[in-house]
Design goal:
237 residues, alpha/beta, five-stranded mixed sheet, 32% helix, 22% strand, globular
């Protein structure tokens, strides 16, 4: 590919807003020229629907900018909590539509993998996320934190077979539960939750200025716990 200095300038001057509400936290970050210039992050089991938009407002205000100045909006698209994913995706897509900027969705496990220092990984990295059930959301990564397969939901028995043999480092908010099953693995010294700052950096690598994107869709690895009642919740006549 021929080097275009003007294109390089446009990419380094990108302004990216990243947001995550997919798991047990809520975070927002603003990326410009390779640096995070403003961020908000909070651990929370619930309440992302009330917290996310005010956090976005605080980040934009702190950087003295607005959504109209953005080049890209990035959001985690799953796996994760059903409600949290819907909140994040709906907010990101609405902002992108209003500001007429692209919206990029990235896999939650890939964002968590970015928390891990490659020097810790050794042979393989396993990201394990809490599903609030008896299974795990998992994905394997190479020592340079590149995905080796697709994110999937596995039972404890399936996880043992999936992990295989050999050195394995585990990260994510289900690390403690996974290590009870994977006795030969070790925990990574890394934040267990998706970080919007990592998401923004990953988005900057994946997206090129001018690239058209379809609105991101949620990555659900299994059906939601809640189900629509029969007859729309109405009593039969």
């Amino acid at each position: 590919m021929k080097y275009n200095p003007e294109e390089q300038i446009r990419k380094t001057n990108m302004l990216i807003l990243a947001m995550d509400s997919a798991t047990m936290g809520c975070s927002v970050a603003l990326w410009r020229d390779g640096d995070i210039i403003a961020r908000q992050s909070r651990a929370m089991a619930r309440g992302q629907s009330e917290a996310l938009v005010p956090m976005i407002d605080q980040v934009l205000l702190g950087a003295q900018t607005s959504a109209l100045d953005l080049d890209l909006i990035a959001v985690t698209r799953g796996p994760g909590a059903f409600t949290g994913l819907r909140i994040g995706l709906a907010t990101a897509r609405a902002m992108a539509l209003a500001a007429t900027v692209p919206c990029l969705g990235l896999v939650t496990t890939e964002v968590v993998a970015r928390n891990v220092d490659p020097r810790q990984i050794g042979n393989q990295l396993l990201i394990a996320l809490d599903t609030k059930r008896a299974d795990f959301y998992v994905q394997k990564f190479s020592p340079d934190r590149q995905p080796l397969d697709q994110a999937q939901a596995l039972t404890p028995h399936q996880l043992v077979a999936y992990a295989g043999t050999g050195p394995l480092v585990v990260a994510g908010d289900a690390t403690a539960s996974a290590l009870k099953i994977l006795t030969d693995a070790e925990a990574a010294d890394a934040s267990p939750l998706p970080d919007a700052a990592r998401l923004a950096q990953l988005a900057a690598e994946r997206w090129q200025p001018g690239q058209r994107l379809d609105p991101p869709e949620p990555l659900y690895l299994r059906p939601a716990d809640a189900k629509i009642p029969a007859h729309g919740g109405r009593l039969r006549p």
